[in-house]
């Protein structure tokens, strides 16, 4: 009996020891260190992106002009420089790229924070120096440095989330899918928690304290992230090896783990072989003329977009970009519309929390669907789910409480105020023919405040059926949206050759920013709440076009197999065979 008891005790101790050892191994693994570094980086990014907009509004007399200029500069910079940044990522070692972009990004934020602190403390004195031109230079300097920080953040995203994570996952596609999903969950959580944290500091403290806190956080975070990157690099020897030529890429392996021998081979095999991919050869060491150096960025820009078009996953990437042309998200536009419909800030914060939860559910759905149906079909199913939920948004446009009225002029509020002799906000240009982004946003804010005042003074409230359906559709659609986003992200990771990951993902970022910029222009053209229903219909149309592009990609990739899912297969499926030029992969 004692022997049995001792054996059980020893087995229990061994089990505890194994469990403890596995926990230690996990928390010291390259995968966990990558998660930790990403969490630190994302937390700092979200705090800064939230705070810099608030700071710029406060600095310019509660006007949105500086915020609008900052947004346009950021979007334009990534649009023009995305391919060049990606090319720089491809041509340099992984550690150098990651460390350089990390230092530049955080140093830029720290410098911006210091300048903003000086401006907040000595704004009155700066206004009197050189007729206020010194203060204007400070504004320009802040926007320029903040834009540099955003470009460095783009480089960090490309190298870590599109390259390092693929190498750390090895040849295990399931592990890659799990890592992508975890990264997105971290993004979802920090999107909500980081702005809340810095918002509390700015509310109960002051803008100066907020600037100091963000600068201090980025300094500490930079040191920790630098150390974590080095640890991940040491634990993953493959990161030191980087293919830079076509010869090295000729034996590129697909990372798919084949669940079903009859269903899965063509899903990953046809992707690489579908089109010839342009590979950038390394530059030879030779004398380069001055004109060639000037022309090099333009050539890189052109070659990057050509290479992006030639990718086998071009339609999938373009479909994802089209999803950025929408007002159906929790940005300043949709929240401004919600205020006009009588929703309070507390209700909006709850809705944002619900959207984060459904976003996390989307990451869970992605991993489950991918195991059951394969990667390409997961995107197809996710697209159908997202579009189905957005039908609620379309219905909301025609429900009671919807302010849809296309007979109202987009700039009726401005004309009315001019006729009444009221002064325009400082952000508005004197010439009404130069209506800009700021004009549209001011219309939203002015209409929001006036409607909320009317609601407080009147016993009759706006029916909430329309706005309830709108946000129900937006929140529910996040499940399909994030599952679809993860699908396209992994398709790019798996099917873009290693020597082109940077430039292709740089162009993908440019495409995303281009469509995002177009959606702001759309709001400029129709900024009043009466036209928001039209914006909803246009947004859903672009989402539909994006998913049609993806369906075309899935059809070209899988053929008749696109509708076979979850282990179900037809005769047409079993008769399909992979192309002869890729059957050896």
From TrEMBL:
One of its GO terms (cellular component) is basolateral plasma membrane. Keywords: Cell membrane, Ion transport, Iron, Membrane, Metal-binding, Transmembrane, Transmembrane helix, Transport. It holds the Pfam family FPN1. It is found in: Basolateral cell membrane; Membrane. GO terms for molecular function: iron ion transmembrane transporter activity; metal ion binding; peptide hormone binding. The chain crosses the membrane at residues 64-89, 101-122, 128-152, 313-339, 345-368, 380-399, 462-481, 502-525, 531-551. It is a multi-pass membrane protein. The keyword Amino-acid biosynthesis does not apply. Belongs to the ferroportin (FP) (TC 2.A.100) family. SLC40A subfamily. May be involved in iron transport and iron homeostasis. This is Solute carrier family 40 member. It comes from Mauremys mutica (yellowpond turtle).
């Amino acid at each position: 009996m004692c022997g049995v008891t001792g054996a059980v005790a020893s087995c229990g101790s061994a089990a505890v020891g194994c469990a403890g050892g596995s926990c230690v191994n996990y928390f010291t693994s390259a995968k966990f260190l990558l998660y930790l570094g990403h969490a630190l980086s994302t937390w700092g990014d979200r705090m800064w992106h939230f705070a810099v907009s608030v700071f710029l509004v406060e600095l310019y007399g509660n006007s949105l002009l500086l915020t609008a200029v900052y947004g346009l500069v950021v979007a334009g910079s990534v649009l023009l420089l995305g391919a060049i940044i990606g090319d720089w990522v491809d041509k340099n070692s992984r550690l150098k790229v990651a460390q350089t972009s990390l230092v530049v990004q955080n140093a830029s934020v720290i410098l911006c924070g210091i300048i903003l602190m000086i401006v907040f403390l000595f704004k009155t004195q700066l206004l009197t120096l050189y007729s206020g031109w010194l203060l204007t230079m400070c504004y320009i300097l802040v926007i320029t440095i903040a834009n540099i920080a955003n470009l460095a953040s783009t480089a960090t995203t490309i190298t870590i989330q599109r390259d390092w994570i693929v190498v750390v996952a090895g040849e295990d596609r399931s592990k890659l899918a799990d890592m992508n999903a975890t990264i997105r969950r971290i993004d979802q959580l920090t999107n909500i928690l980081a702005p809340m944290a810095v918002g509390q500091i700015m509310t109960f403290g002051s803008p100066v304290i907020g600037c100091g806190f963000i600068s201090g956080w980025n300094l500490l975070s930079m040191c920790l992230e630098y150390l974590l990157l080095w640890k991940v690099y040491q634990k993953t020897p493959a990161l030191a090896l980087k293919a830079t030529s076509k010869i090295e890429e000729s034996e590129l392996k697909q990372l798919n783990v084949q669940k079903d021998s009859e269903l899965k081979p063509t899903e990953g095999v046809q992707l690489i072989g579908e089109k010839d991919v342009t590979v950038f050869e390394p530059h030879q060491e030779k004398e380069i003329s001055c004109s060639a150096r000037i022309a090099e960025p333009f050539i890189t820009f052109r070659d990057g977009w050509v290479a992006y078009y030639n990718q086998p996953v071009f339609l999938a990437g373009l479909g994802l970009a089209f999803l950025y042309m929408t007002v159906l998200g929790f940005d300043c536009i949709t929240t401004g519309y919600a205020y006009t419909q009588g929703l309070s800030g507390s209700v909006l914060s709850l809705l944002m929390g619900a959207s984060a939860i459904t976003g996390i559910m989307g990451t869970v759905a992605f991993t489950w669907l991918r195991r059951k149906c394969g990667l390409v079909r997961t995107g197809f199913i996710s697209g159908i789910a997202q579009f189905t939920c957005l039908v609620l948004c379309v219905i909301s446009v025609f429900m009671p409480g919807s302010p849809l009225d296309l007979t109202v002029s987009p700039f009726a509020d401005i004309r009315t105020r001019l006729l009444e002799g009221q002064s325009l906000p400082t952000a508005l240009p004197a010439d009404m023919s130069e209506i800009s982004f700021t004009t549209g946003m001011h219309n939203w804010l002015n209409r929001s405040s006036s409607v909320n005042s009317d609601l407080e003074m009147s016993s009759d409230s706006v029916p909430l059926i329309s706005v309830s359906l709108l946000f129900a559709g937006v929140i529910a659609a996040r499940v399909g949206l994030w599952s679809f986003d993860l699908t396209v992200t992994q398709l790019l990771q798996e099917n873009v050759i290693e020597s082109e990951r940077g430039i292709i993902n740089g162009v993908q970022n440019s495409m995303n920013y281009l469509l995002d910029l177009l959606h702001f222009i759309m709001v400029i053209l129709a900024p009043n709440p009466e036209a928001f229903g039209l914006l909803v219909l246009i947004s859903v149309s672009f989402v539909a076009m994006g998913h049609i592009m993806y369906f075309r990609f899935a059809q070209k990739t899988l053929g008749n197999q696109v509708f076979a899912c979850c282990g179900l297969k037809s005769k047409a499926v079993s008769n399909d065979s992979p192309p002869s030029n890729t059957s050896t992969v």
